[in-house]
Description:
Blueprint: H1 3-6, H2 10-23, E1 26-31, H3 36-41, E2 44-46, H4 48-57, E3 62-66, H5 69-78, E4 83-85, H6 94-97, H7 101-109, E5 115-119, H8 124-127, E6 132-134, H9 139-145, E7 152-155, H10 158-168, E8 173-174, H11 187-196, E9 201-204, H12 210-215, E10 218-219, H13 222-231, E11 236-240, H14 245-252, E12 257-260, H15 281-290, H16 299-315
Parallel strand pairs: 1-2, 1-3, 3-4, 5-6, 5-7, 7-8, 9-10, 9-11, 11-12
The structure holds 1,3-dihydroxyacetonephosphate and iron/sulfur cluster.
Amino acid sequence: MNSTESTLSPETLKEEIARLKKEKNALIMAHYYQRDEIQEIADFIGDSLALARQAAKTDADVIVMCGVHFMGETAKILCPGKTVIVPDAAAGCSLADSCNPEEFAKFVEEHPGYTVVSYVNTSAAVKSHTDIVVTSGNARKIIEMLPEDEKIIFGPDHNLGEYINSVTGRNMLLWNGACHVHDRFSLEKIAEMKRQHPQAKILVHPECRRPLQLIADKVGSTAALLEFAQKDDTPEYIVVTESGILFEMRKKCPQKTFLPAPAEDAECQCNECDYMKMNTLKKVYEALRDGKPEITVDADVAEKALRPIVRMLEMSE
Length: 317
Ligand code: 13P
Ligand code: SF4
């Protein structure tokens, strides 16, 4: 980038992104945890399930996945002929990192006869050892579709696994992984917020710990929490997930108040995913301009990982 480009204003960056998008037949997708300015320019915003569904059906030549690496991988596996870009290649996921593919493969091997269900927040390599992929938006539905006596391994998110076990009455064998954002919300701080805002309802993502799930008025994926807030008639909510979702909540429900929940060790009032926030408007512009950093997946791994992703899409239609 030359010195003029490095100082492009947000308005010019937005204009350039719009021009390049047309020129390259590109689609910009964004997760709800992205920075506000990225959600503003995205063609499509959604939770992990909606992003996978949209990737499967787009006719764009280039997908700019404003999210984290596993989301780009999922899109690439579903659309191997397209160019898939994540604006910052270093945007990873602590939850996906909590599941090493070799250790997971060994764990699966040690439990013959088990159906392996993996959360979408995993590497393509972990998905290649999986029978069915799920997201927080369809995990309950998919597990309930399996026979009651089916032996199930669920990984990597332990908190989501506990939640699904509790609502389905199953006894899935859980991998002990966690997301560094959702696993550090503070029950004490949220209880104190509730004392100060007694009429507020508590919205909790299932990646949060069990005690938080138990005090929630609604447990659900980002899209499910958003939908709940839109349909419900309460004026105020305590939102216990990454604070990026507040942008869409406030947009959809401008008359309501949404209070972000803080992490236990945080000085500030919210809890952000540093990986999700790595993507910036400037990086989106550069990614579109240069066609990189491109996501690639080893062909053999991609072939094996495609089956459980397609199974998820079919089972959650
Ligand atoms: P959902 O948007 O599917 O609820 O996932 C949350 C998440 O942590 C994505 O990284
Ligand atoms: Fe991963 Fe957690 Fe960030 Fe989601 S919020 S991308 S699960 S680290």
